[in-house]
Amino acid sequence: MIITDNHMHLHNHLGLEAIKQFKRAGGTHVILISNLAHHYGVFPLKGEDFVRIYDRHLSVVREANEIVRTYPVIGVHPAEITILGDKLGYERASSIMKRGIEIAVEYIKEGRAIGLKTGRPHYPVDEHIWKLSNEVMRYAFELAGDHAIPVQIHTESYTFDGMKEVSEIAKEAGLPPEKVIKHYSPPEPGEFARTGIFPSIIAGKDVIKAVEQNSRFVMETDYMDDSRRPGAVLGPKTVPKRVRELLSRGVDEEIIWKICRDNIEKLYEIDLDSS
Ligand SMILES: [Zn+2]
After folding, report:
1. Tens of pLDDT along 229-248?
2. Distance 48 CA to ligand 1 centre (A)
3. Given the DSSP bridges, would you call strands 198-202 and 180-185 parallel, antiparallel or unpaired?
4. pTM of the prediction?
5. pLDDT mean over 191-207
């Protein structure tokens, strides 16, 4: 069986032990997302400073890949707009972020990562910051659209209208919404299918509700590995645990293959069996 977690982080809590726990629980494939710049002790003053972040992330992915098959997604977290902007001004923050995204796209074109991360703040911001954030996200979509790159987005909490809007931005930017993966999605794949955006559903107990709608989704824990908030979101063993639970509740094995293998292979254009 292939069991994939579509969105995990490694930071300063369990580190690689989290990947070992995932493997011991039955997990086989992980998509590891780069963190906020300050998690690497970097305060970017120019887009090129993201090189240090991406390189550090890729080296963590290489180590994790010795344990289970691990793939990197890199990019600029949308919260950088306030972290950087509060000190440098928001216009300057947004241009640093755009340059950081350009560099991430170069890495992805070279095959060093499988997807791009972007989005817009998940917390309330003023109109100016919201506008700049949407511009950064649109720019990321434009670059991704040019090269058929899948994009994981971190955004405000799900609403149908919000996702519909993001879907429109993607279309205008030339990126098919099917290539936009909404990280931290609720178990509503039926609604997501109508927006075009692809949901990465949090592997909580209510995933069963998702399976009852359709199998157009992937699963994630958003495991944070943050020593200050060790219990935040879900632990690294959750996706394998949830898969076993779904199977024991009579969910067809074919559905799990679809969610954990076929959908991932199609989104990222990778072959999980060969790895
Ligand atoms: Zn995350």
Report:
1. 877 889 999 999 999 999 99
2. 22
3. parallel
4. 0.97
5. 97
> Domains plus CATH for the chain?
4-268 (3.20.20.140)
Query: What DSSP assignment string belongs to 198-267?
Result: EEEEE-STTHHHHHHH-S--EEE--B---TTSTTSS--TTHHHHHHHHHHHTT--HHHHHIIIIIHHHHH
Cα–ligand 1 centroid distance for 250 (angstroms): 30
Q: Which of 60, 62, 70, 58 is nearest to 28 (CA)?
A: 70
- Among residues 225, 203, 243, the alpha carbon closest in space to that of 28 is found at 243
If you measure from the C-alpha of residue 35 to the centroid of ligand 1, how many angstroms do you get, rounded to a whole number? 7
| 118 Cα to the center of ligand 1, angstroms | 11
Give the pair of three-digit tokens for residue 134.
Answer: 């949407």
DSSP state letter for 197: P
